[in-house]
């Protein structure tokens, strides 16, 4: 069964590239600029969430905190994506499992996702 990754990213180009790369790696993906509500995430049942820190001018770390409070999602790893200088602190405070500083190298992003999902990598 394919592992699934939810990509919540405000920037359309980044969202599309990340989704294409993860699809090439054999993941099932769902990407969106912003979820309508947490139920949408619960229904998808992702194995990992890549979460932009800035979602339509709202802080993504608030969504991360909400995700971690939902029993069906609490164990799902969340990786925060951000250009913020204090992204390490932001990720820690919202109980994200890790962070990726933008701009990022796609191979590094894939390696981080693979580490969390114990998935065998295909060459980029």
TrEMBL record:
Gene3D superfamilies: 3.40.50.2300. This is Response regulator. It holds the Pfam family Response_reg. InterPro entries: Bact_response_regulator (IPR050595), CheY-like_superfamily (IPR011006), Sig_transdc_resp-reg_receiver (IPR001789). Keywords: Phosphoprotein. It comes from the Bacteria. Residues 4-117 form the Response regulatory domain.
């Amino acid at each position: 069964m394919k592992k699934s990754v939810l990509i919540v990213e405000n920037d359309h180009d980044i969202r599309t590239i990340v989704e294409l790369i993860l699809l090439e790696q054999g993941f099932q993906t769902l990407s969106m600029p912003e979820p309508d509500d947490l139920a949408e995430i619960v229904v998808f049942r992702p194995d990992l969430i890549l979460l932009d820190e800035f979602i339509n001018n709202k802080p993504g770390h608030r969504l991360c905190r909400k995700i971690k409070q939902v029993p069906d999602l609490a164990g799902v790893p969340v990786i925060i994506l951000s250009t913020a200088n204090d992204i390490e602190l932001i990720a820690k405070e919202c109980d994200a499992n890790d962070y990726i500083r933008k701009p990022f190298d796609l191979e590094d992003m894939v390696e981080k996702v693979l580490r969390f999902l114990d998935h065998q990598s295909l060459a980029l």
